[in-house]
Amino acid sequence: MALLLSVLEQGFIYAIMALGMYITYKILDFPDMTVDGSFPMGAAIACVLITKGIHPALTLPVCFLAGAFVGMLTGLIHVKCKVRDLLSGIIMMTALYTVNLRIAGRANLPIYNMETIFDNSFVNGIFTGASADYKTVIVIILIAVVTKYLLDWYMSTKSGFLLRAVGDNDTIVTSLGVDKGLVKIVGLSIANGLVTMSGCVFAQQQRFFDISTGTGTAVIGLASVIIGTSLFKRLTFLRVTTSVVIGSVIYKGCVALAVRMGLSSSDLKLITAALFLAILVLGMERKKKVKTNADAE
Description:
mainly alpha; two-stranded antiparallel sheet; 74% helix; 2% strand
């Protein structure tokens, strides 16, 4: 039971981040490496605000806005400075390493004895007795589900349709008299806002910030997006965002299972890389089969 709760907690926390990666990878086709810096930035901001006495719930919108600002900077570097998409993300990721250290003041900042969104008078008053053991996973799922539905709502707006149009065919957006560069910047802002908010939730669940927290975040996010969109693409009744959330939980379940089978926790990055490679290869094989069948017809 403890393993299942851990998988659900981690899976839904990273699902918020994966929703942001879905915007950059699937919609904008933008390999955004900023996430490796914006995820720990959310953790750093959350821990600092909590140590300053700010209510933990307020850290969520603050972190989202901070991430949106970072995403905007990545977009400006790409659109206005004409720097390639991958390099734009790498530049911001590198800069954020120092920024995160400046925010936290040190490489590791614990919040063990302080209130979090999972442990405060309001939440503890709701979850009493046996239900107290499940309060963390319930709060995380609630945050992830609300975030997913807010993103679904945004995608149904005019701005959301333009965002999807830029990813599909930016010429159409230009012909409508809309600046495609501005739409990209908006998309990157929302994506990194979600990633940073995910880092905020992660820090409060783990009760500390560490400068190395964001290492491999982009890989985890991409793996979650690819797993979800590949496994459930035939299930038309499922929204893509729902598939991404489920993909994140499945991914974390696979990693937990690998560790449970005897692999050392120090091998996690190797497991992550191997699993991601397998997902990419299987995805390419499936595309080849579809193309071969289409050519045969």
